[in-house]
């Protein structure tokens, strides 16, 4: 079944198509939730809420615009679901680590992250403090500008760029620590 046919049949509430959509895109959508939420149990809850939202809204909100548009729409719904969860938890983008723990100067990177297995890198990202992780994900994976992130999260552009800088610095530190553990 093509992406367009799958979307059309899901719009018609076809159970087989919904099952196929879940099987085809569920892993990617859950990974998005896990990347934003960090905690597996909470990410599972957000994922299931997002799937329900997808099936409830696909007929009114999705318009097929060519190959890849369904996956893009599904991803956007899941990102919004994750951000909604974080807002409900009253996330104020507060720093979760003491400012002393994150240096103002970026730590030297011992090389590119391409030598780090994807699973390890995603785990290190999930370990970032919630505010840092949220801004990092929006900037890197969703390719949002700091202006867009500020608008989405109700923070200033400066706060967004500062959170991103600190997330990147902390991530570099975690990558360097990972590399040192491997050398032992």
Structural write-up:
With 184 residues, the chain is mostly helical. The chain folds into two domains: 3-88, Rna Polymerase Sigma Factor, Chain: A (Orthogonal Bundle), CATH 1.10.1740; 99-183, Winged helix-like DNA-binding domain superfamily/Winged helix DNA-binding domain (Arc Repressor Mutant, subunit A). The chain is built from eight helices and no strands. It has helices at 3-11, 15-37, 40-61, 69-88, 118-126, 130-140, 146-153, 157-183. Helix 1 packs across helix 2, helix 1 (3-11) packs across helix 3 (40-61) and helix 2 packs across helix 3. The chain is globular, with a radius of gyration of 18 Å. The model is unreliable at 92-105 (pLDDT under 50).
């Amino acid at each position: 079944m093509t992406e367009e046919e799958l979307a059309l049949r899901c719009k018609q509430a076809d159970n087989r198509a919904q099952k196929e959509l879940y099987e085809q895109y569920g892993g990617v959508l859950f990974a998005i939730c896990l990347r934003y939420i960090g905690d597996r149990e909470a990410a599972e809850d957000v994922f299931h809420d997002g799937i329900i939202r997808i099936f409830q809204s696909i007929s009114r909100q999705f318009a097929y615009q060519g190959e890849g548009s369904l996956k893009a729409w599904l991803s956007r719904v899941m990102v919004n679901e994750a951000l909604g969860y974080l807002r409900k938890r009253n996330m104020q983008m507060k720093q979760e680590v003491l400012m002393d723990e994150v240096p103002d100067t970026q730590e030297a990177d011992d090389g590119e992250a391409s030598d780090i297995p994807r699973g390890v890198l995603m785990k290190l990202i999930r370990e970032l403090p919630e505010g840092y992780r949220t801004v990092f994900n929006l900037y890197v994976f969703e390719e949002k500008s700091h202006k867009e992130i500020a608008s989405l999260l109700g923070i200033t552009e400066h706060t967004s760029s500062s959170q991103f800088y600190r997330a990147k610095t902390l991530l570099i530190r975690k990558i360097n620590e990972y590399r040192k553990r491997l050398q032992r």
